Amino acid sequence: MAEKLSCLVAEKDDGIRLDKWFKQYYPALTQGEVQKLIRKKFIRLDGKKAEASSRLSKGQEISLPSFINDKMEAPKKDKSVYKMSTKDIEEIRACVIYKDKDVIIINKPYNLAVQGGSGITKHVDGMLEALRFDEPEVPKLVHRLDRHTSGVLVLARNTKAAAKLAEAFKEHTTQKIYWAIVLGEVKEQSGVINAPLSKMGGAGAEKMTIDDEDGKNAITEFRVVDNLGKKLTWLELKPLTGRTHQLRVHCLCIGNPILGDGKYGAREEFLGDNVKSRKLHLHARKIIIPHPTKNKMIEVEADLPAHIKETFDFCGFHEK
Asked: What structural domains and CATH numbers belong to the chain?
């Protein structure tokens, strides 16, 4: 039986996910290693079974085996917190498109990461203090968007709301609608893409691929909204599952990669004289989600970023 260590969840970590807690305090331990230790019951919460997605509560006891100290670094103090300037604070607050006592929704800009990583210092997770406003708790992330995907990002303003919103995403009681500009003419006016996904091995570990044998279930509904001849198509996309890079790989799967997506097949720098942006043309346009404490649905739309709006204008696409 491995010797156990234990520590109590601090107030500032109230409501964060267990895997994020390990990433913050013990960065030498990989996500896969954390999940393996949880699966083998070396890591427990208040003596009970834990999950990587478990949300922590102030005063909760985290038990872990002492042998991982040989690999893990000592706990670190908030070095990952981004040092915000007055301009940063103003800009992130200007992104707010919905706010009540329990929920904040922002229109995440293109190229702003949701969380930190290799070479990433500025990210939403490090700017949450600026979105506290008049509430006692710092907002909490409940889902993610790719760095280069703009649009609707939901934050919980307290621990109770975080649990309810996370459950809504897990149980697929939310409806997410994305807009994308893709290359070429889409053959069908509407349909369903059912193509399981898995991570590629080796150097492409951060890239996803279709994997009919071992991939995780991934389903996307699509509808053609408009097109520019056979050059570009405006698609409405509804992911029914939430896999990494799902929409990007599924668009490639039907032969129509998203404009500006060099990772998944769209390496053209420009099309025509005015479409010159290499930026990804994928936008989380709308979300419909159950309110965490009230018997109602929240329905919010996010305006297009400048580079997609410019392409819309060039193509003659009209938002309304």
From this structure: 4-70 (3.10.290.10), 86-170 (3.30.2350.10), 175-315 (3.30.2350.10)
